[in-house]
Amino acid sequence: MEFFQQVHKSLLQGSKDTIQRELMNNIDWNERLICIKGFRSVGKTTFLLDYIKAHHPDSNDVLYLNLNNFYFTKRKISSFADEFAKRGGKLLLLDQIQKYPDWSADLRKCLDEIPDMKIIFTSSPVLRITEDNPDLEGMATIYHLEGLSFREYLNHETGSNFTTYTLEEILKNHIEIAQKVVDQVRPLAYFDDYLRHGYFPYYIHDPNFYIDKLLKNINLALEIDVPYINQIEFKYLPKLRKLLHIIASEAPFTPNVSKLASSVETSRATIMNYLKYLKHARLINLLYENGGSDDDQMKKPDKVYMHNTNLLNAIAPNNYDKATVRQTFFYNQVGYVCQLAKSPAADFCVNGKYKFNVGGRKLKPEKGIYAASDVIEVGQGNKIPLWLFGFLY
User: Fold this and answer.
1) CB neighbours (10 Å) of residue 174?
2) What is the C-alpha to C-alpha distance for residues 251 and 307, in angstroms, rounded to an integer?
């Protein structure tokens, strides 16, 4: 116990410069069991440590544990939590829960047998926390820590403190909001850099090797996270990697499942499963005409996008054209807080009622359709700067 308490204190004292994440303000920290999901190196560990520093800086009843530690190959979480509670512990923060084999049953045991204990844990985005899981169904509150929004990136790069806005606020007051930002900084001076290397927070520590680290994390997600949780045999990993490269090279596109199956040398059913696995891993986004989650879909997606522009730049730089990047950015930033669907009249339908076309500065709004336009600082009427949709979170 003393060893882990010392590690906890050392981590708090030695943490580097961090970017404060908006998700911190959106979590109900009073919940007994909270899960923070996120892609590799998106900042989950830093997020936990920032929470401790902000809310429990000198508390002896709070403890951070990384379940990568070999100690937990022989010690159950529930046993450790029981000892911690008897020593006055109230809150455990468990990093990388997917590394622990009986995580769901053990977490449930903690909840049932240690009523005063709260637990916050992180996991891979692929891990199914409550779906078809009787141990934690209805017990865990799940949040997703996404990469940096353009607003978070801009705040860090300029030392600003711009706030978030709802979609409705942007649609109604975008001229006023954009002008306030432009009066302080030039957002377009930072936008292209963000699109290429600003989504994952580790860019601030090692910018020269950002793409290399991103490619490493992509491969680790494909080689470890997706196969381990979805029980894919190692021999099929080249097919999964090939599919992701095809998607990155052609996105956004309407998938021909038979053609993809032929290219990857697998079945149509396997391609459909792989698409869902990649979506759950936060590597791609799927767009359906009727909206909703891909889990609810019985047919192929209408369009496939890369999850974010940094992934697109790393995997398929030859497909890094302006039209593709703009739509990928819009889906990534808006899709985090809103429901997106394919529209027969526009590029996207948002929350079932707002239609958007996404393009350059010459893009004009049409009747009933907003224009999300790149390379403009301030819009007019139904023409809104594309960068401003990066202020939704």
Assistant:
1) 23
2) 10
Q: Which residues contact 390 (CB under 8 A, 6 or more apart)?
A: 149, 150, 151, 153, 154, 194, 329, 333
Rounded to 10 degrees, the C-alpha dihedral 367/328/227/338 comes to -50
Q: What is the pLDDT of residue 119?
A: 98
Q: What is the mean pLDDT of residues 298-310?
A: 93
Q: How many beta carbons lie within 10 A of that of residue 188, not counting itself? A: 15
Tell me the CA distances in angstroms from 202 to 84, 153, 169, 192, 315, one per residue in order. Answer: 33, 12, 31, 17, 18
Q: Hunting for tokens 């009249």 — which residue is that?
A: 345
First to last CA, the chain: 38
Encode pLDDT of 48-76 as tens digits.
999 999 999 989 999 999 999 999 999 99
The residue among 143, 150, 155 whose CA lies nearest residue 23 is 143
Residue in this structure with the two tokens 């908006």, named with its chain if needed:
22
Q: Given this model, what pLDDT does residue 99 score?
A: 87
pTM over 0.85: yes
Helix (H, G, I), strand (E, B) or coil at 247: helix
Q: What is the pLDDT of residue 297?
A: 59
More confident residue, 84 or 227: 84
Strand extents, DSSP E, 242-368: 284-287, 303-306, 340-341, 348-350, 354-359
Q: Under 8 Å CB-to-CB from 68, ≥6 apart: which residues?
A: 95, 96, 99
